[in-house]
Amino acid sequence: MKKWAMIGTWKMSYDGIDKASAVLEEGGSAGDAVELAIRQVEDCPDFTSVGFGGLPNELGEVELDAAYMNGKTLGIGAVAAVKDCKNPISIARDLSNEKFNCFLVGEGAERFASLKGFEKKNMLSPEANDQYEKRKKEIIEENLSPYDGHDTVGIIGLDKNGHMVVGTSTSGLFMKKPGRVGDSPIIGSGFYVDEKIGGASCTGLGEDIMKGCLSYEAVRRMEEGLSPKEIAQPLVDEFSKKLEKRQGKAGAISIIVMDKNGNWAIGTNVEFSFVVARELEGIGTYLASVDGNRVKIHKI
Ligand code: GLY
After folding, report:
1. Which residue ranges make up each domain of the chain?
2. Tens digit of each residue's pLDDT (9 = 90 or more) over 209-265
3. What does the alpha-carbon distance between residue 102 and residue 162 come to, in Å, rounded to a whole number?
4. For residues 241 and 250, what is the distance between their CA atoms, to the nearest angstrom?
5. Confidence of residue 138 (pLDDT cuts 50, 70, 90)
6. Atom of ligand 1 nearest to the CA of 206
7. Tens digits of per-residue pLDDT, 63-120?
8. Which residue is closest in CA terms to ligand 1's atom 4?
């Protein structure tokens, strides 16, 4: 028997991880725990970068990306640019059982969800619509860069049977072009898990995270024998430097890493909050702040 553990990006994952911890404590599966935790974030209107309440694209439409990976079978399911779907993570989980057609986008994904009976919902909250109207005005009047906000929820779960799962869900960049897809539903970039090794998930600017396939790279380094601590921050530092050299600047990048025994670490180049829950230790929210070349982590 293993000791269960979960880690999730941003403090918005707290309530979901708290509920999902009870599932794992009772011997439930990592898949059920990760799906439950992410649904909780998707359903909460207060979070402006995931699910209902997520900020829309430049046409004022909420387009959502999500993914699910089963660390036992390596099965992946993902949806991208889906509208009017209440819980994209559940659709992604369902798709992870498919041998073919496991990654669906736009209308095709919506059609699949509808045929399978997944709940439909207009995902634009009144508050998100107000922010959209305000931003549109600011962009025109003040010539501001439109892009803002891209905080993906990514959660890695390990259950008592040693099974590991990772899931992600996001509304992506505020004011993105219709059809834009970030790293979150892209295997190896936004997420990767192999329960014989461990898992990883990223949040930040998808366009930059994808250039390094950072989640896969983290798991690959674990397979070579490095610990999450030896991987997470060095990987972000190394890749940020590479981007600075090649393109002048690196976007926001944060990664969570957990090995098959529940040992965890994070790496980041921006202030980053995250949540960890482990058997016998309980749940905690942490804040990582960047101070020059050092990243300090404290419990909040
Ligand atoms: N990391 C989420 C996105 O860029 O869409």
Report:
1. 5-196+269-286
2. 999 999 999 999 999 999 999 999 999 999 999 999 999 999 999 999 999 999 999
3. 24
4. 8
5. confident
6. 4
7. 999 999 999 999 999 999 999 999 999 999 999 999 999 999 999 999 999 999 999 9
8. 206
Give the number of other Cβ atoms within 10 Å of residue 44's Cβ.
Answer: 15
267: β partners = 255
Which atom of ligand 1 lies at the shortest distance from residue 207's CA?
4
The three-class DSSP label of residue 91 is helix
Taking only the tens place, the pLDDT of each residue in 272-283 is: 999 999 999 999
pLDDT given for residue 148 in this prediction: 65
Interior angle at CA 173, CA 40 and CA 37, nearest 5: 15
3-state SS, residue 286: strand
The rounded distance, in Å, linking the Cα atoms of 173 and 176 is: 5
What does the pLDDT average to over 122-135? 92
Mean pLDDT of 175-180: 95
CA 22, CA 45: separation in Å to the nearest integer? 23
Q: pTM of the full predicted structure?
A: 0.96
Pocket test for ligand 1, best of 57, 184, 201 (most atoms within 8 A of CB): 184
- What does the alpha-carbon distance between residue 260 and residue 94 come to, in Å, rounded to a whole number? 24
Distance CA 274, CA 199 (A): 15
Beta bridge partners of 284: 276
d(CA 83, CA 11): 25
Helices and strands, number each (H, E), in the chain: 8, 13
Q: Which residue has the tokens 């935790």?
A: 37
Q: Which two tokens stand for residue 224?
A: 């070579």
